[in-house]
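Retro notes (design track)

What went well: tokenization of the new backbones is finally stable.
What didn't: we kept losing track of which sequence belonged to which structure.
Fix going forward: every design gets posted as structure first, then sequence, in one message. First example under the new rule, 250 residues:
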């Protein structure tokens, strides 16, 4: 764990925030370059990126409040406003950013699926940086295991000294693979929206598998998590959308 990147007296810059910011800026810069190649107005894509950041962070925090209320309330009682700097749920950020993208594209008369295809690989890239931030922060940790690559968090982590799965690193690697695959596939796409829904499908599969190693929240029905339920819905929606868009293209 290395949750604090820099400390100046009582003011601390968190490693999680630094890595998330790097992921956002790198992803947005590369997406803007790709947008120019696709004939999209780079300025509008950059403006959209700002709205995606705001909507994503807002949605991520709202989902954390909704589904992890005990943890949120405990952090609020101990740290007040400072607690808002931590505790974000990717699914909430994903939904918030998706809604913002739909509204923005309609308002500025941009092709939604073309824009989504441009952004898809870089969403995965930015998410990899976010999960790396989770690893340094000690959140989103895994279940107990005794594999050679298991990690042990130091005190005051709630599972200090216990060997656990580095689930955050599993997602880092998985998201980087998705990024590389979509980046290579982009030039071979056959219809608008294909790259985006392939991203949703591949991340849903990755998340469903990684959730079996999560240890930071309870399992339901003895085996599955809320994250897996949402991942299953993403997989179903993505597969259906790919079939439908393919037929529309024909």
């Amino acid at each position: 764990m290395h949750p604090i990147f820099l400390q100046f007296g009582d003011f601390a810059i968190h490693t999680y925030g630094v890595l998330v910011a790097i992921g956002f800026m790198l992803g947005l810069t590369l997406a803007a370059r790709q947008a120019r190649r696709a004939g999209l107005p780079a300025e509008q894509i950059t403006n959209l990126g700002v709205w995606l950041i705001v909507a994503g962070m807002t949605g991520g925090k709202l989902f954390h409040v909704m589904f992890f209320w005990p943890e949120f309330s405990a952090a609020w009682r101990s740290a007040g406003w400072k607690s808002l700097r931590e505790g974000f749920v990717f699914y909430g950020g994903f939904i918030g950013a998706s809604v913002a993208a739909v509204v923005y594209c309609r308002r500025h008369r941009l092709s939604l699926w073309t824009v989504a295809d441009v952004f898809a690989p870089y969403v995965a890239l930015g998410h990899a940086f976010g999960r790396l931030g989770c690893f340094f922060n000690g959140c989103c940790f895994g279940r107990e295991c005794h594999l050679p690559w298991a990690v042990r968090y130091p005190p005051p982590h709630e599972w200090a000294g216990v060997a656990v799965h580095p689930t955050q690193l599993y997602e880092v690697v998985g998201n980087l693979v998705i990024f590389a695959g979509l980046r290579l596939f982009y030039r071979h796409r056959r219809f608008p929206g294909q790259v985006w829904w392939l991203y949703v499908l591949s991340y849903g599969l990755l998340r469903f598998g990684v959730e079996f190693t999560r240890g930071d929240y309870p399992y339901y029905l003895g085996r599955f998590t809320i994250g897996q339920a949402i991942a299953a819905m993403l997989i179903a929606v993505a597969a259906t959308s790919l079939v439908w868009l393919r037929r529309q293209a024909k």
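Added context from the reviewer: The chain has one domain: 4-249.
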